Amino acid sequence: MRPSIAFAALTLLKEAGCEVVVPMTQSCCGQPNYNSGDRRSARKLAEKLLAEFEGFDYLVAPSGSCAGMIRTHYPDLFRDADPALRARVERLCAKTYELTDFLVNVAGLDHVPGTFNGTVTYHDSCSGLRELGVKAQPRKLLALVPGLRLAEMDECEQCCGFGGTFSLKFGEISTEIVERKCKAIEATGARAVVLGDLGCMLNIEGRLRRRGDEQTQVLHVAEVLAGDRAPDLE
What we know:
alpha/beta, 9% strand, four-stranded parallel sheet, single chain, 12 helices, two-stranded parallel ribbon, 2 domains, Rossmann fold
């Protein structure tokens, strides 16, 4: 939906001194299937992901939702697996990180290439916050961005109303929740809302535009931290 997020993540990981490998056969982590009760399909996708990523030192995702699925829910998905398979899954879970968490707590990144002239506000996405404890990490990195000022919105930890299929099954409720979020964003006067999950980005940006707000930017934290710097793909 927004390839610039992946390229920004690549830039930041390289800035932190990492060698980055992107397995070309990777697909979904299985979260939509798992959330819908289709454990069989979710398990197949999870086993595929396990085989593709278990050989690396770390698995890093620019999404609290995907990282949370692996680290928090894979143990449940494989609870009835044989001991050897469960052990492999546990090892993968232990080295899976959301991007900002990895950059702060593993890589120790103390500088970023991006700049931003203006005020932003930050939305704490549910999965990253509640499943992975991602709260201070993105703010610590945003504090490194020259020219950026952070204005906290009211109820920054409250859900945006997306919730995957929740927004489809309960559209009216979802709309009321995201409307409340948009009002909180508007009240800060920030020129951009920054966050760490694509689902939240799509939901918030969609509502802002339907409200007639064409000015407020909706940006992934990686895009802000990396700025306009193009990644070296060599």
